[in-house]
Amino acid sequence: MALSWETLAKDIVFNKKTWLALGVASFAGSALYVAYRLHEIAKRQRMLREAPEKRVLVLGLDGAGKSSLLQHMNSGDSASALQPTNGFSVISIQNEGVALNIWEVGGAEGVRSYWENFLQGTELLIFVVDSIDEDRFTVAKEELTKLLADQRLKGVPLVVVANKQDQAGAKQGSEICKALGVEPDWNDRDVYIIETHTSENSASLEEIERLKNMMRTLWPKD
Ligand SMILES: Nc1nc2c(ncn2[C@@H]2O[C@H](COP(=O)(O)OP(=O)(O)O)[C@@H](O)[C@H]2O)c(=O)[nH]1
Ligand SMILES: [Mg+2]
């Protein structure tokens, strides 16, 4: 007897075994999914409990791109519209088993005097510079020099982020370090230079990943 689609469909729809099999399969599927989610939550909680914590401080003049950098470090997605940071903000991200507590403090003239309240316990200083804002390199240098002279940052590694590399006329990281008076081969402090762009629509994700990798080298999990 020739099988028509209609009879085949009816067979499937009215066959109790089909429904039973579907019921069992969907129950098993849901149970597996719930078990998987519970396992993931337990794993995440365990990681959070066990993760060593590191305190990272992100400073730099206003508009340099600190918040943008953090957004990209946090999500890897393109940054959404940002408000200038008034005061400070802190995010915590997992970097291969190490919890990075990253503090950003606003960089406008009136709030820079508060930077020193955030130095204690800092294990890495990231100083972000707008690479086309040549007029303010001198101010950036003054601020960074003050920071590096502080005993609380003695020996703390420094990352100079030469941001806005997507802009025409952006100075290279090495030129910026020179303008800031930073010597890449200081022997009492490790210095890293990262060249990034972190604008809303595009970011140098490879460089941002390099920054995260560098932190993994500084603080290996075990
Ligand atoms: N063209 C360009 N603009 C950027 C870049 N990074 C940040 N911006 C923009 O610069 C402005 C200030 O950035 P923001 O992250 O708030 O700077 P912050 O004050 O240092 O936190 C914002 O309008 C950002 O969209 C970049 O790499 N290139
Ligand atoms: Mg900001």
UniProtKB/TrEMBL annotation:
Residues annotated to bind GTP: 60-67, 107, 163-166
CDD domains the UniProt entry points to: Arf_Arl
Parts of the chain that traverse the membrane: 20-39
Residues annotated to bind Mg(2+): 67, 85
Gene Ontology molecular function terms on file: GTP binding; GTPase activity; metal ion binding
Keywords: GTP-binding, Magnesium, Membrane, Metal-binding, Nucleotide-binding, Transmembrane, Transmembrane helix
Superkingdom, taxonomy of origin: Eukaryota
Annotated family: Belongs to the small GTPase superfamily. Arf family.
PANTHER family: ADP-RIBOSYLATION FACTOR-LIKE PROTEIN 9-RELATED (PTHR46724)
NCBIfam families with a match to the protein in the record: small_GTP
The protein's name in its UniProt record: Putative ADP-ribosylation factor-like protein 3 isoform X2
Naturally occurring in which organism (per UniProt): Stichopus japonicus (Sea cucumber)
Highest classification ranks of the organism: Eukaryota, Metazoa, Echinodermata, Eleutherozoa, Echinozoa
